[in-house]
């Protein structure tokens, strides 16, 4: 559908996909039933993030049978942040929604989001997950502690139940697209840019098909991305601990000069302790430095290998 009716709102539904062959048909059917019952025009924009299963073939089928379906397919896996950015950049709607393909984002909320935006004039209606039913206790514990930490040290506030599932105005989307950084952390950017947001509570929904692509390792790296993207506190802590170690070292030196005990053992312990702390903070410095190098290279955030989009 290349020509839209100017009298109706256009909603673009951006869907990052990575190995979602089993879930995509169910997702498309469920969302289509909801948006067809809304007083809007709509388009799907799927972004295939280097899937190795039949995700791209499913997108071929959907785009052939439905003119509302568009897709971009990456040359490899660039990550969900890159996929979301590509979808936002390609969107044409005056409202844009980000949804996961696994149906953990309830499609029925789309109608509520749109209605709340029309009533309030806000720029964003975001889903707020009130529980984590179905997730492991370790993952729940780590998630809660992460949000406690990041809210304590970062310049923006991020809620544990807030995710990517939200309907945004064109102005808000354009503001997000104005950030060209390679190391993106959208949860932080949503808060950083401001704009009035209405929160809509919902209970956690288990995946309908397939398995989660988020391992504990990938979640840890994503959490580290968020902390280093929105806080300089780790760098400040490195400086503070460095000063403390200098003072402790000086005190220990005075103690050694005036009291007799096993000096060799003490020195070995101090070397291991201080050496370990130096390696830790060198790693922190390296993380920030690596981000600056990545930004300075100006490499593309993603590479599109295939698309069914014509020039708008």
UniProtKB/TrEMBL annotation:
Positions of the Glycosyltransferase 2-like domain: 12-176
Gene3D superfamilies for this protein: Spore Coat Polysaccharide Biosynthesis Protein SpsA, Chain A
Pfam families: Glycos_transf_2 (PF00535)
SUPFAM superfamilies: Nucleotide-diphospho-sugar transferases (SSF53448)
UniProt protein name: Glycosyltransferase
GO cellular component, one term: plasma membrane
Species name: Copranaerobaculum intestinale
GO MF terms, alphabetically ordered: transferase activity
Keyword Lipid metabolism attached: no
Transmembrane segments: 235-258, 264-290
């Amino acid at each position: 559908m290349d020509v839209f009716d100017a009298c109706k709102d256009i909603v673009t539904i951006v869907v990052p996909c990575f190995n979602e062959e089993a879930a995509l048909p169910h997702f498309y059917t469920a969302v289509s039933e909801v948006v067809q019952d809304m007083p809007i025009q709509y388009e799907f924009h799927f972004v295939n993030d280097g899937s190795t299963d039949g995700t791209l073939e499913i997108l071929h089928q959907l785009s052939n049978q439905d003119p509302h379906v568009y897709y971009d397919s990456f040359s490899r896996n660039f990550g969900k942040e890159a996929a979301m950015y590509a979808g936002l950049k390609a969107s044409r709607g005056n409202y844009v929604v980000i949804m996961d393909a696994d149906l953990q984002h309830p499609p029925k909320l789309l109608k509520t989001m749109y209605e709340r935006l029309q009533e309030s004039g806000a720029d964003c209606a975001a889903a707020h997950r009130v529980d984590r039913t179905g997730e492991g206790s370790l993952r729940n514990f780590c998630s809660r502690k992460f949000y406690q930490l990041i809210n304590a040290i970062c310049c923006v506030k991020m809620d544990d139940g807030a995710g990517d599932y939200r309907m945004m105005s064109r102005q808000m989307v354009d503001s997000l697209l104005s950030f060209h950084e390679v190391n993106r952390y959208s949860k932080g950017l949503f808060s950083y840019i401001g704009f009035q947001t209405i929160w809509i509570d919902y209970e956690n929904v288990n995946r309908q098909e397939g398995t989660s692509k988020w391992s504990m390792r990938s979640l840890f790296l994503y959490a580290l991305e968020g902390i280093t993207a929105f806080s300089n506190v780790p760098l400040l802590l490195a400086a503070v601990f460095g000063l403390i170690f200098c003072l402790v070292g000086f005190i220990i030196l005075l103690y050694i000069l005036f009291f007799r005990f096993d000096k060799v053992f003490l020195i070995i312990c101090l070397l291991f302790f201080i050496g370990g702390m130096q390696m830790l903070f060198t790693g922190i410095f390296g993380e920030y430095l690596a981000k600056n190098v990545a930004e300075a290279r100006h490499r593309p955030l993603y590479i599109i290998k295939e698309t069914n989009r014509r020039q708008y």
